[in-house]
Design a protein that fits this description.
Elements lengths: L22 H4 L10 H14 L7 H16 L3
Helix pairs in contact: 2-3
Length: 76
């Protein structure tokens, strides 16, 4: 059996395989936006109050707050 010699970069990618795309490559001037946890918490609390302060929906409020803040940041 012959020994194979590996280069320093042992990560082999098949020819024709799609290359990963960086966030910068997707939008030339702007990187991916992630709102601060404090900002999301304030928005989630606002959603909680506006929906009648129903308990048990913390995750939904948090995810909706994140989505709203990211959508507001997107150019129209």
């Amino acid at each position: 059996m012959k020994n194979k010699i590996f280069l320093n970069n042992q990560r082999q990618i098949p020819a024709g395989a799609p290359q990963p795309i960086s966030p910068r490559a997707l939008n030339g001037n702007e990187t991916a936006y992630s709102p601060s946890p404090d900002l999301v918490a304030r928005r989630a609390y606002s959603i909680y109050v506006n929906e009648g302060s129903r308990d048990g929906h913390e995750v939904q409020h948090w995810l909706q707050a994140e989505a709203d803040l990211i959508a507001e940041r997107q150019p129209t």
